[in-house]
Structures are given as structure tokens and as C-alpha cells.
Design goal:
The structure holds 4 protein chains of 4 kinds. Chain A is an all-alpha fold. Chain A folds into 2 domains: 1-129; 131-508, no CATH class. Chain A has 19 helices and 2 strands. Chain A has helices at residues 2-27, 34-59, 84-105, 110-128, 132-150, 156-187, 192-199, 215-232, 240-247, 250-283, 285-308, 312-334, 341-372, 383-386, 388-402, 408-422, 426-451, 472-488, 492-508; strands at 63-66, 77-80. The longest helix of chain A is centred in the middle third of the chain and has 34 residues, at 250-283. Mean pLDDT of chain A is 87; it is low at 460-467. Chain B has a domain at 288-545. Chain B has 22 helices and 3 strands. Chain B has helices spanning 8-25, 30-56, 80-107, 112-131, 135-153, 159-194, 207-215, 217-234, 242-246, 252-261, 263-287, 289-309, 314-334, 338-369, 380-383, 385-399, 405-419, 423-449, 459-462, 469-472, 503-521, 527-539; strands at 2-5, 59-69, 72-78. The relative contact order of chain B is 0.10. Mean pLDDT of chain B is 80; it is low at 463-483. The longest helix of chain C is centred in the last third of the chain and has 33 residues, at 117-149. In chain C, 71% of the residues lie in helices and 0% in strands. In chain C, helix 2 (15-37) packs antiparallel against helix 3 and helix 5 packs antiparallel against helix 6 (117-149). Chain C has 6 helices and no strands. Chain C is mostly helical. Chain C has one domain. The two termini of chain C are 16 Å apart. Classes of the chains: A mainly alpha, B mainly alpha, C mainly alpha, D mainly alpha.
Amino acid sequence: MIDSFAELAPAILVGLPILAAAFPLLLGRLWTRIGWWISLVTTLAMTGIAAVLAYSVHVNDAVHHHLGGFAPPIGIELVADALSVWFAFLIAATATVVLAYTYQGGPRGRAFSSVYLLLIGGLMGIALTGDLFNLFVFLEITGIAAYSLIAARQHRDAAYAALKYLIIGTVGATLYLIGVAYLFMATGSLNMVDVSASLAGGGSADIGVPLYDEMLVRAAFAFIFAGLATKVALFPVHSWQPDAYSEAPDAVTVILSALVSTVAAYALIRVTFTVFTPAFFEVTPAATTAIVTLGVVSALVGSILAVLQSRIKRMIAYSSVAQFGLVVAAIGVATGPIPAEFALAGAIIHLIGHAIMKGGIFAAAGAIAASTGARTVQEYAALARRRPGLAACVAVLGFALVGVPPSIGFIGKWYIALGAVESEMWLVAVVVFISTLLTLGYVARLLERMYFILPEDAPSAVVTDGGDGVSIGMLLVVVLAVALTVVLGFLGGPLFELVDPYIQEVLHG
Amino acid sequence: MSEVDSLRPLAVVLISLVAVGLIITSHRRPNVRESWSVLAAVGKFAIVASMLPGVRDGTVYVWRFETIVPHVDLSLRADPLGMLFALLASFLWIFTAFYATGYMRGLDEHAQTRFFAAFAASLSAAMGIAFAGNLITIFLFYEMLSIVTYPLVAHDETDEARIAGRKYLAYTFLGGGVLLLAGTALVYWLTMVHADPSIAFQAGGITELVAASDADPWPARIAFLALAIGFGVKAAVMPVHAWLADAMVAPTPVSGLLHAVAVVKSGAFGVARVVLDVFGVDLVADLGMDVVLAGMAATTIVLASFIALRKNNLKRRLAYSTVSQLSYIVLGVALLNPLAVLGGLLHMPAHAFMKLTLFFCAGAIHVETHTDDISDMAGIGRRMPLTMGAFAVAAAGMAGMPLLAGFVSKFYIVTGGIDAGMAIFAGALIVSGVLNVAYFWPVVYTAFFETPERHDPKPIVEHDRAPFRHFVSDGGDAHHDGHHGGPPPGGWEARSPLTESTWFMLGPIALLVTGAVILGILPGEAVFLDLVEQIVEGAVGGVDR
Amino acid sequence: MSESERVRQEYTQSPIILTTARILAPFVLTYGLFITFHGADSPGGGFQGGVIIATTVYLLAFTFGVEPTSTWVGHRSMAILAAGGVIIFTGIGFATMALGGNFLEYAEFVAILDLPENEVVKWGMEAVEIGGIAAIIAGVVMALVFLTAGGYGPERGEEP
Amino acid sequence: MIEAVADRLLYFVVAVLLGIGLYMTVASPNLVKKVIGVNLMQTAVFLLFVTLAFVEGGSAPVVSQEAVAGRHASPLPHVIVLTAIVVGVAVTALALVLIIRLYVGFESLREDVIQEVRRND
């Protein structure tokens, strides 16, 4: 029963939110709240389906769903394997939880619900698709939905942030598409597995010799990496992210920070390991160097920029640049000459962990802004006295971000560090360890203001408009993130077991 | 040696965490709140003590949880070395809990709930460090200790306190988050090369590590240095000691916690774990790291003693004394000789009892008279006879006078050092002993044999040499009340020991100094010597006395 | 008064343009539908057709003014077009799954339609192209002209 | 050399278009021109796909009774281009809507002016 259902689950997961996105537009006139309820029912159903799918894939084997019944390499397939199901589950669950935040915290309205569901559909598509071009389409759907959601805050700065994100994001997607075109030229196929086989000399192209050292293939990787790096927001092309995160409505920031860049990084893992495979990097060590260098630089510069910020949401956004730098560095390490299982595990776990922690921090920042009006580091002075619970949550999540155990942040960092040591990339190892101190730089700054500023030292000009606008839903999101962060910190071993099948498959055939 | 599954190690860790919750919830009723602290302290000590007979018979109580990372459980093991630290810390917490109550109320401090909550949490972390069964678990609690002691260091919420707090966090995260984690990752990787990775503590060293470092000793050396310095940060080994002196801005019970009960001891304890249970004495010797570690420790011992000479603020002088004395422990362990290790480990309780006494005395003086500088203390022995008497006894013990706690441990370290053929390190101890006298005697002399009017100049401290002026005018406890301390206009009034201060503070002082004397006169009767012998037997080999 | 509003008010067209647009519009619409219906087995399809259908509205908007056309078409009908298209598209996709196939596996309709398989596939494809894609495109592209040409005045809730 | 260029003329056109588009996106301070630049880049990629699908002497990939056999151009890139155009239209439209909002908010279409205003806020 479960198995036959699992066969269909990927298509339902992608199709359902898009189908549901139509209804708030149609029915929104009847009842203003209906968009929220439609979203809730949809995301709850998706969470359930994703859970069943994940269980089925974990117990049995990967599920391939051929759209329209056309088999690859011609048809488009959706793939639920040991990696993608976890991201599918993460997306569905996060989407459900964030809804609790929006019930009172807004934005509301039928257009918001539609675009929100469209965003979830796009993200789900990225997670589950097995086709390179289809990935582009979903990237763009996600992008368009994200731009619209940022602009949902009716302020000119939000429009500016959205446009900035739009232009940079579209350029990134275009670069990615060029890479795909090159791969299509080289192999005549767009299916990830088939392209991968063709690059190795087999597949539908069946050339007989590996194509890894072809200039075309190398250029393809360069373009795809550049495109996805833009979406991930690595250092030189990160500039959209601080604006987007800080100008978006608070609830939108939560979902953006938790999922959008995360899923782009997932796409990078997918392309790097499923399509190009470690064999490509063996022939092209420069690619490994490039990825690692960009990741490391991003991790360092992002942290430094974060320390310099005075607005909370910008600071946390720059922190994301740094954390994604670590993830990308780990991806690079895993492509290195010594197969580093731990590095890849670290990249995946840190990606998931970062989604939980960052989502939580942004949710907390939103709730704090709703209740006290504080939006800058300055205004957080003595917050622990006014909002002890939220301050404590920020403290826990902040320390988790630093990598203090027991927390999911520590687990991710431990695997990345171990991977770097394992593959003897000492530079990365050093950066991972140093990043603890860098992260501490901005986290401690915040905590000190919250806890160790006497009320008389605090600026009197703390805005108190908005009143006590914190809803139970907001607090629920924050508390859930904190609980997950800590609890998962004890489960590093089981987490590794969950992604291990994928890692074994791509690193050891 | 047999391993027994037991929840007791976990209970020891959890009991004060539960207390944290209770302390926070009863923040409106100070009496109830403080009684939770005391109850948790007594309960914790009771549980630790209940494991003592078993541990003495060679039983190891183990509690395991889910694997946190592949091949590594979250595990708590009550083995002899862990028991040594746990027993010490939980025993001294009882005194500290009483004393802290007296101190905080005496000064009517702000944010007392946060203070007591963080205090209880730090003891929980200290127990975790004591019983941690592997490097990851100890790392977990080590970081936790850093975090929960940070509010204590920055308690005053003045600029000075915030700077000290920042410095403390930066240093301990350099030690914990960076070096310790790096060392752990290296050890994990080294043991993974040959077999399943193993970073669990084993008496005598992790066996896989020996094989791994045969091939290429350098990764093992780097791992050792990372771990040793990582723990060394908390043990305030030079050159990573600077945070400790700045942390003096914290209230005195915190200084007691930092210096005597939990924090710096956890660093020294960690070094002992690394040498004895991760690398093992043989491997450390093979890697040639013993000389490096011992050299660092010996340098710290001598240099810190010199710096202490120049400090006029009593708590700062005590702080540098701690820096110096802690390196005794490190040095003893680093010498790798059974006798030296014995002495080093034995110095852990000895120093704890004496230093806690000294700090409690300094704190009592602060509460009663708001005096922090030694130069203001002329004749204060009349005002606080019992306090200063205890101070004199503990100071003598610090200097290594026979019949006091410090003598026994130093004696073993010196003998061990000579046995090991490293007489130069033994020499460092002798020099330091002399310096100890030099920096403690003036305090005692000033207190008892001088009056504010007839006050001998102390050239080393007070002689004004312009370029070094900042040495003289160092800060100390923040004077939030604006009172600058020093003798009242008519000179110190004479008081009897019974009325000089509240018994919340005097009681702990009197009991602790008695403890220090017992440790010195009857080391064999106090449980610590037996426990240390058991540790040394397991990790190094038989003790040949 | 902003510049765009002033331009809009002065916006009147000569009788020639009005007449031409009136005559041309039905033909453009027919052409759009023609292209749309030819998606399955000859060049054409929902994307192109949908855009051309929307072009009719563009033509009318440019001739008779954006605001009157917007009122005439109505936000609701555009929403229904777009949302209905999505529902038809995904609905057909899920219907094939309900019949035991994969997403959009038209051949599964053989079970309920009395037609040869290639005909079923053709009609399935047509349904998706016409009912789904063309409707979505037409609705969205129509909406875009009103969204962009209509401007975003302060009356729409813009904070300064 | 000329031969090599002539053989790959379309690819050069693609590269030039891409370059112009990227340059406009980065260098032009005018937001509308930035969007046009992005459009140019996208168009270049569409051309790239069309170019690589070209088969010398091939017919359109439409299956009819007469032309079952013979050389066909690959239909896949055309599908891709079609989809990508739709995506491009959506992005462009959204960009224009946003630009209108920005114009209302900042009363300028120039990025440098907008940034100046934002800095002064």
C-alpha cells in the first residue's frame, strides 16, 4: 500500500501546492481567511505525504516518477532518493510551521497565500526533480515567488530589495541555463542520471570515452556553479541577500532564510555529486580549488560583515552568507582527491541545521520587533528584562550557530571539520575552527546588549509602537526551532545514518 | 575494573540543572531560591559520595545515550579521576552556596536570580566535565561551562565587567570551540585510519592512537598541543592566562568558583585527562611533548609569581597566584613520573581548599569594609581576626609550609621531578615557593603588624616608576557604591571573631581552612590521596614511595 | 498629479484607430484560438496561443484606455482564467494518477474514453494546452498589462 | 581564423549578446535598462539553444504522414526555449511592476539616486 502510494507521492508533492495555489485567488472573495486555511491544509497534507515518502525511501529504495509516463532520458522524472526526501520533508514541514507565524503576524490576503503555495511548489520541484532544465524552471518559479513575497511589504525599500534580488537572481539563473546548454551540447540529454552516465562515456550519448576533460564540460560546470552560487549567495554575489532578508516581511524572511538559499545549495550538491560526480573533479582539480576557495572566503568575509552591521536582520543575513560559505567549502572538500564522506554529510546536515536555526532566529527577531519595536542591535539593550523568554531563545539559537554543543549547529560543524581533516585540507579545517570565533563575534555582541546593559544605559528611544503584537503562533515557531536545534544536537549519529545511503552512492558508486 | 550501568552520573549532572529551573521559577522569594541552591549542592555531593566506595573498589559507573556522532556515544563515566574532580567540586560547592548567599545579600547585589541560576548551571557543567567519557562529551560540557560562567563574569554590567566578559568568552572559545574541537577532530581522524574511530577515554591512553602516531608523529603532536592548550586556556597556562586576571571584576563567590571550585580546575583536569587517558604517558613521552608542556607550566609558575608580587589589589594578587599554582598541577602531570603525577593531582584538592579560603577572606573583607587594596589593609587584622587568621594559614599552605595541604603535593612533585631526571623543573617549584612567601607575607604582615599610621612602604608595589605606573593603579572590584575602601578615619576598630562578619561567610571560611589543615596533617586519612593513588596506578603504573 | 496620470487623461485616439481596432480584435482573437487548438499535432500550442489571445486585450487597452478596458474585463475573470487554468492542468495530471498512471500520463484515459490510445493522448494534450496552459497564459498576461500600465499609486497602500 | 569565426558565427553572436546584456545589467544606472540587459542575456541563451538544435538540411520536428523518415531538428531545445521565454516574460513583467513601485516611491529610475535616498533615510 505504502509502496504504491510512494510511487505517486513525488508528483503529488510538486503538483498539490501549485493546484492549491489557484484556490485562494478564486475563493478569496468569499472569505478573507480562506487562503490561510487552504495553505494550512495543503502544507499539512504535504508534510504527511513527505513523511510517508521518506519512510518508504528509507526502508525500500529510491522512487522515480516519470512525468507523463515518458521514460528518461526524453521524459522528465521526479526522483525521491535518500537525499531529496529529507529536503522535501524539510520544505513541507517548514512551510507548515511558518504558517503559524503568519496567522497573526501577516502578511495575509489571498495573493499572499497563492504566492506562498507557489513558492513551496517551486522549492519542492527543485528538491525532487531529476532533470537539469526542469531544475531551472523550478528555480525561476521559486525566484519569482520569492521576489513577489519580498515585495509584499508595502514599502519602497522592499520593492528595491525585491528588484535587486530579481536582477541578480535572474542573471544567476541565466548563467545556470548556459551551463545546462553546454551540457546538453556535450551529451544530448538533460536527465541528471543520463547526463552523468554520458559524461562517464556511457548513457544515451554512448561515446565510449569519458568527457570529463572536455573544455565544454568544464565550462558547463563553471557556469552552473556560478549560477547556483548566486542563488546560494556566496560572497562576491551575495549582495542581494542582506537587502532581501532585511526588507521582506518578517514571516517571509523566516521562510526565505530557512528554505530558499538552502534549496539552492541542495541543487548545488545534486549537480556536483549526481551529475558531475567525483570522477570529474579528479580530472579537474581546479574546480575543487575554486569551490573550496569561494566557500572559505565567503565564510570569513560574511562573518566580518555581520559583525559590522547595526540592524539585526541584516546581521543575521550576513551570517547566512558565512554559514553557506562553510557549506559550500564542505561540498568542495567532499569533491577532493580523498573521498570525504564526513564533509558531504557535514554539508547536508549543516544545511538542514542552518535552516532550522536561521528560521528560528529570524522568527524570534520578528516576534521581538512585533512586541517591542526593536530592530537594531542598539535597541536590543536590556531586552532580557523586557522579553526574557524570547531573549533566551535568541541566546540558545545564537550559541547553536556558534557551534556550541548540544546543538544541530555543532553537529554540522563537527562533520565539516572532520571532513576537512579527513581529506587533509588543512586550510578549510582552520577556517572552520576559526569561524567559531568569528561567529562568536556577532552573537556575543547581541547577547551582551540583551543581558548586560543596565536599563539606565539603554537608549530611551526604544520604539514601543506596535504594542504587544506577539501571537502564540510566532512563539510556537521560535520555541519549536529552539527545541529542534537542541534535540537534534543529540542525534548526530542517526542523522548521519539517514543521509549515508546517498553519500555511499555518490562517493563510492 | 568492572563497568556498571548506572543513572547516578547523569543524576549528578541533572540535579543542579533541575535546581536552575527551580531557582528561576522562585525568583520572587529569595529564601526559597537560595535553599534550592543549598539543597542541590548537598544532594549533588551525596550522590557523588554514594559512588565513592564503588569507585574505590574498581567499579566504574557508566551512563550512555544515543550516538551523537558516528562511533561516539554521549557517555558519562564515573572513574577515579572523574571522581576526584567531582568530589572536590561538589563538596566545595556546598560552602560556596552558603558563602554566596551571605555575600550577595551583604552587598545587596542586582540580578541575584541570574547569578544563582548560572552558578548552579556551572556546577552541572563541571560535573559533566568530570564524568565525561570521551572527548566529545567533555567538549560539550566544557562549552556549556564557558557559557554559563559568562553571565557570572560579566555580572556587574559595568564597562569593565563587559570587557572582562568579552575577553573571557573569546579566550575560552579559542580554547574550547577552536583548539579543543580541532584536537578532537584530529584524534578522531588519527584513530579512524587504523580502525573504528575511538575517542573514549582509556586509562593509560587510547590504544589505537599509539599505532596511528607511529606512522607520522606530527598530526599526533599537533593534536596533543591543540588539546593541551585548549584545556590550558581554562587552566590559565601562559600565554593564554590574561582572561583570569580580568575576570576579577566579578563578585568574589564567582572568583571562588572560577579559581577553586570549577572553572580553572576543569582546565587542569582536562589536561590530566589528555595526558593520562587520551595519549597516555608513554605516547606523550614518545612524542616528546612532555618537555614542551612541562616547560610551559614551569615558565608560568615562575612568571606568574613575579607578576603577583607587583599587584596591589588583593584579588588580582590572588589571581596571579592561581595562575602560578594551577601550573603546578599541569607540571606534575606533564612530568609523567608516577610520583609527580600523584603530586600534581593531589594539588588539585589542596589548591582548591586553600585558594577558596583566600578568596572567601578577600570577599569577606570587601563586604565588611569595602577594602580591595593591600596598601589599605594595614592593621585590618584587628577588625577581622578570624578572617585574617584563616588567610594567614591558607597563605602559608600556598607557600608550601609543612603540615599544610600545599606541602604534601609540592613534595611529591619535586620528588617526582628529580626522579624523572628533570631537576630543572623541580628548581622552578623551589623558586616559586620562595616567591609565594614573598607575595603572601606582606599581606599578613600588613594586616597584623602594622597600623594605618605606622605603615612601612612596600617598594616593589608602591614605588612609583612612571613607565610601569599602570601596574600599580590596576582596578579590581568595581566600587558601585562609590565607597573607596580603606580604614575608617579613626583606624580599624577591634572586633571579636564572633562579630566580625556574618556567619554565612565566616562559617565556610573556618571549615575550609580546617580542611586545608587536615589535608596537610593527615593526607592519608582524607580520601583524596587514596583516590589519586588509584588513578596513578591505573594510568601510569605503580607508585613507588 | 503624477505625469502618468496626466498622460492617461489626455489619452484619446483618432476614429481610424478606434475603427481598425474594432475590426481587428475578433480576428486576432480567432487567430489566437487557432494557434491554441493546434498544440497537439502541429506547430502551435497554449503558450503562443494564450499570448495572442491576451494581445486582443492589449489592443483594446491601448485603443480605449487602460482603465475602461480593465473594468470591462474585470479582475475576477482574469483570476478565474489563470486559477482555472492551473486547476485544469494539475487536475488532469492528478486524474491520470488516480487512474493508476503517472502524472499527466494521458494514455490512462483509455480506461474511461472509448477511443484509440493515440487519440486519447492527443485529446489529453489538447485539454491541457487549451484548458490549462492557454488559460493561464492569457489570464496572467492580461493581468500584467493592467498591473504595469495601471501604475502603483498611493491609493494602493504604498507607504512613502 | 576568419573561417573559424564564420563557421561558428551564431555562437559569436550569442557571446556578444550575452556580453552586452551583462554589461548593461551591471553598468547601467537606469533600472529599466538593467532589466533590458537581463532580457538580452536571456535572449542570448535562447539563441544558443536554437543554434545547437540546428541540423543541416533537417526539417521541423513535426511528425506527419509524408515526412516520417529523414533528418529532424531536435525538438527538445525548442521546448526548452519556449518554456524559458515564458519564464523570462514572467520575470520581466514582475521587474516592471517593481520598477513602477520604485518610481512611485523614489521618483527616480536611477539606481544611484535611489541608493542616495536610502542612505539619507
